[in-house]
Design brief:
It is found in: Cytoplasm. Helices cover about 5% and strands about 35% of the residues. By secondary structure, it is mainly beta. The mean pLDDT is about 75.
Amino acid sequence: MAADLNLEWICSLPRTWTYGITRGGRVFFINEEAKSTTWLHPVTGEAVVTGHRRQSTDLPTGWEEAYTFEGARYYINPIYL
């Protein structure tokens, strides 16, 4: 399950954790102590839904690039949804 980014998520991060946002708008979490990152919130285990889809000029008209919560890329054409 995923959740929207909000202040509660940020405030509930453990002391050694921070967060970052990719160029595509996807939120990830950083464990400063372990020097590691994850897509999943360290307390809830959920990914943050940020609408991290983007349209690319390299794709055919109508197609968008998106990512699974595990980070795998896939393509969407909303016309077919």
